[in-house]
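In the design runs reported in the main text, the only information available to the sequence generator was the tokenized backbone. The following block is the verbatim input for one such run; it is reproduced so that readers can re-run the procedure and compare outputs position by position.
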């Protein structure tokens, strides 16, 4: 069979592909090679290529299936086709996060680079260390009070929920006690 190279103009436009096709593409082969593996007779000059491909395919397929099972690789199961479908970008992102990452052809879609966290300037550091003026502090407490009411935080345990949300957003501080104090101060705020 000829035409081992994928037609990237076709594959790059697909939202998702069968897992087996993603694995073939990750190895630099058109998924048509899977048909050749099923043929009874193969040209002698193709036998070694197919053996090497088959071993690499099997290893990647097993790794992907185990990671789908535990939820590390996002895949959609189509019961009518009895196949998993994956996004090529998600597949590469997952495969490159493995302890021994897969290699990929240059054309294989890449995840969008994650933005680097903004560097803090010395001006920002000094702004954090100086006290707020009373007007700004009261304004921020009013906003916190309104957000507290909107989110209907519980009377007890609100600090833990806020810490969890902050950590989910990538922030490392403030701590429970600080949050508890600020929420308490905002809740004591009297209307104008």
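Verbatim output:
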């Amino acid at each position: 069979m000829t035409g081992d190279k994928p037609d990237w103009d076709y594959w790059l436009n697909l939202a998702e592909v069968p897992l087996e096709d993603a694995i073939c593409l990750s190895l630099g082969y058109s998924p048509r090679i899977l048909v050749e593996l099923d043929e009874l007779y193969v040209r002698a000059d193709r036998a070694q290529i197919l053996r090497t491909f088959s071993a690499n395919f099997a290893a990647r397929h097993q790794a992907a299936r185990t990671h789908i099972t535990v939820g590390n690789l996002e895949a959609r199961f189509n019961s009518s086709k009895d196949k998993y479908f994956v996004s090529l970008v998600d597949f590469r992102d997952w495969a490159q996060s493995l302890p021994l990452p897969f290699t990929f052809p240059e054309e294989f879609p890449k995840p969008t680079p994650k933005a680097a966290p903004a560097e803090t300037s010395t001006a920002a550091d000094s702004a954090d260390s100086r006290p707020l003026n009373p007007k700004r502090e009261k304004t921020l407490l009013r906003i916190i009070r309104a957000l507290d009411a909107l989110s209907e935080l519980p009377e007890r345990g609100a600090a833990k929920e806020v810490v969890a949300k902050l950590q989910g957003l990538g922030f490392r501080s403030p701590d429970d006690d600080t949050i508890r104090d600020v929420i308490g101060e905002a809740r004591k705020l009297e209307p104008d």
